[in-house]
Amino acid sequence: MTLACGAAVVLALVPVASLLAYVLSHGIHRLDLAFFTHLPAPVGEASGGMANAVVGTLELVAIACLVGVPVGVLAGTHLAEYGREGWFGWTVRFTADVLSGVPSIVTGIVAYRLVVRPMGHFSAWAGGIALGFMMIPTVVRTTEELVKMVPGAVRESALALGVPEWRTVLRVVLATARTGIATGILLAVARIAGETAPLLFTSFNNQFWPTGPGQPTASLTVQVFTYAISPFQDWHDQAWTGALVLLSIALAIGLAARLLVRRTAGARH
Amino acid sequence: MIDTTVHTAPRETRTKIEVDGYSAWFGSRRILHEVAMDIREGEVTAIIGPSGCGKSTLLRSINRMHETVPGARWTGSIRIDGRDVLGRSVDPVEIRRKVGMVFQKPTPFPTMTVRENVVAGLRLNGIRDRRALAEKTEWALEKAALWAEVKDSLDKPGTALSGGQQQRLCIARALAVDLDVLLLDEPCSALDPISTAKVEELLLELKDSYTIAIVTHNMQQAARVSDRTAFMLDGKLEEFGETRTIFENPSRKTTEDYVTGRFG
Q1: ipTM of the complex in this document
Q2: In what side-by-side order are the strands of the sheet with B72-80?
Q3: Does A167 touch chain B if contact means CB atoms closer than 8 Å?
Q4: What structural domains does chain A harbor?
């Protein structure tokens, strides 16, 4: 039995390991400082990079968090504190679950209609909002679980001290759940940082430095996509490097999330 | 309604809290039936009775924690210093700043240090003056007989203390907001005998400056610590009087059966 389980683990790890190995081997050649500091160069020119795409992805994620974190955390807290029974809580939870299943390209189209059309052009706002919509379900569910885990005794102790309820929820209950909520946010960020479809017609792409969130903005994912479908070998190599960077970011965030969890567990003992 | 309580001749102490015809429900389930009693300043009043008799509900009604449970209802009145605290126009937050509670499970706030825990009630209500907070921290920990033990660990997490210390920390935290009344709901149930003894000693020291009411399922504790004892059964106040009388010479058979251990 142990042998069978062990074999299953190995089998499950094979695709992951081979993926990592493949991306690493193809992407490592063009991984240099220029990648992170230079703008894309015309085909054939040496030392082009994806610096603007890296910054663009950060910008888009930041805007997404502006949308996703407050909405997600507040909705999740409300669900945990007041939505345990009753139709309202049920509806919100159901909506969040549906939203998490929406194909990302659909979210992109919705953001196109809501943001790009009124603005008249592509922008980081549109891309960030699309990504923010995608973050919300994850953050809501994680926050709800974490807030539910805060012992009722903590809440009661704060109320008994004469702390008004809203302040109890904000500064005691949420504070107690904060590490778990941060982990949930990190995991949501890891997911959206790697999204391409919703960005295709919201933030579009840009070969130059971002000058503001109202402009079309480069992102690592879209840039990789653009280079990968091009006919140029040079660009294919850079696409591999972009993929490697994306994978590393996702791994780094996952690691950070795990360490956060470990630190809370350690602090309790 | 038959008056089932036994009152002794009033002493010099002033009545702080008057419970009058108080009944409480959780939804349709009735917990308390027309309870009437008074709690005096400068005394420790114990409330004893078998599990489920409503003693915790009664205690939690005094600082309006009863209503934090969805579906809670009540009728009757509870007056503190002559003022009915159950009225809809009275802000429960205001009451809880004068009437504090310590719960069965010691619950320091997990994200705060010892120091932050002690003045949590003040900080969470907007008081920021560092010097005032530091003075209050020392004062409250002294009052809770904890200062000597923790003065070098003030910046450790509150949860790093032992169980008995945590409970005294919770008492310090309650005292720090300048209460008049301290309610304790089985404060020693989760503690070892030595910590229990320390907490009981502390209550005897504190009673001169506060009005104290303690719910306990430990009769010996009630006998040791309280001046007057209320015996409750099935949501009704069976007997109420001087602790000595309740334990040595109770008027009702049910009281006698309970304190001699025949049931409960």
Answers
A1: 0.88
A2: B29-40, B15-26, B72-80, B83-84
A3: yes
A4: 51-268 (1.10.3720.10)
